[in-house]
Amino acid sequence: ALANAKGIRMAGMEQGIRFEAFRPYCEAGAYDVMMPDVKYMGGLQEMLHAADRFALHGVQFSPHNPTGPICHAASLQLAAAAGSFDMLELQFDESPVFGQLVDADFGPVVDGHCRFPAGAGLGARLRDAELERHAMAPALHMHIAT
After folding, report:
1. Nearest to 89 by CA among 109, 103, 105, 59
2. Residue 49: partners with Cβ closer than 8 Å, 6 or more residues away
3. Low-confidence ranges of the chain (pLDDT < 50)
C-alpha cells in the first residue's frame, strides 16, 4: 500500500512454484504484477491457471522470461493463450547465442513487439550443431581427502 501511495507498482514472485505459492500474496494484495516463470511454475497449463487466478484478484500477469530461446518461445505461446496478459519480460540483445540456438525467427523488437514463432509446438527447435558448438567442457572435480 505504501509503495502504491508513492506511485510505485510492485512486481515479483519469479520463482514461485504452482499457483499455491502465489495465493497468499494475491489475497493480501501484496503485488500489482505477478511474474511466474514457466520453468518453475509446473508447466504451461499451470501458468494459464495462474493467469486466470491473478485476474480474479486484480493482479496483472507478466511472465518472467529472462533466459533462453525455448523459454521465450513458451512464454510467447502463453502470452497468446492467456485470457489476461499485460506484458512479457524478454532478453534484449544480451547475447547473439540466443538467436543461434534455435531455428525460430523472433525478429527484432520493434515498438515493444517481437515476432511470434511459426513452427510446430512451441514454434522453436534447438539446433543440435549450435548446441555442440557452445557446449562447455565437463567440470573437473577436486576430491579433498579427509
Report:
1. 109
2. 19
3. none
CB 20 within 8 A of CB 50: no
How do residues 49-79 score in pLDDT, each as one tens digit?
Answer: 999 999 999 999 999 988 889 999 999 999 8
Rounded-to-integer distance, Cα 122 and Cα 9, Å: 31
* Residue 129, phi then psi, degrees to nearest 5: -60, -40
Side-chain-side CA neighbours of 94 within 13 Å: the count stands at 9
The CATH code that applies to domain 2-133 is 3.20.20.120
Answer yes or no: are the C-beta atoms of 117 and 105 closer than 8 Å: yes
**Bridge partners of 102?**
126
Contacts of 91 (CB under 8 A, 6+ apart): 65, 66, 67, 68, 72, 98
In the chain, where the domains are located: 2-133
Give the type of residue at 106: F
* DSSP letter assigned to residue 67: S
